[in-house]
Amino acid sequence: MRDVLRGRFIHDIGDGTITSAWFDEWNDVEPLINIVRLCDIVNGGMLLTDQVCDIIDQAKWRWPPDWVDRYVILNNLAPPVLSINSDMVMGNDIAGNKCVFSISHVWEYLRPHAPIVEWYSMVWFSQCIPRHTFVDFVLLVSPFAIRNVARIVVIKLLFAASIYYVWQERNRRLFKKGNRSAMQLYETIYSTVR
Length: 194
Known about the structure:
Blueprint: H1 2-5, E1 9-12, H2 38-43, E2 56-57, E3 60-61, H3 66-70, E4 88-92, E5 98-100, H4 103-110, H5 120-123, H6 130-139, H7 149-176, H8 182-193
Helix pairs in contact: 6-7, 7-8
């Protein structure tokens, strides 16, 4: 998962107090831990827990002078200008537009995309009862059209409740050796939808 998301998000430096100096992607190159050896970080008097603000002093890098010769790529890395704003994690949405990080953007990037199936509205609708929709989903119900919207909602609820409770009754009879009468089943469905 980490390899899939690597490079998708970058820290926009504000005050530098949230972003890890070594492990987060905040510069145009890559995380500094991929450039500077771990032993050099420790021997240079730096800590692995340093934030970006910890390795900058008066708009200059705080790392040892010999790093500039040892790690030539650091010569081209200008220290970010720290501000009073907080650091922000930025990323790209599914369309490639730059945006503030959110879990919903990660989900949209990672989830498989497929066209909406024709029975979608029969199973998932705003008045649905969640525990009923799973059984509906499993059975892949096809929707049917009725003109009156109120009737559609009631029929969908009745349909979903009926499937759920009939399936529940089936399991009860198979595994618990108990059963309800047809009238008791009807009353249960009716009271749920009502």
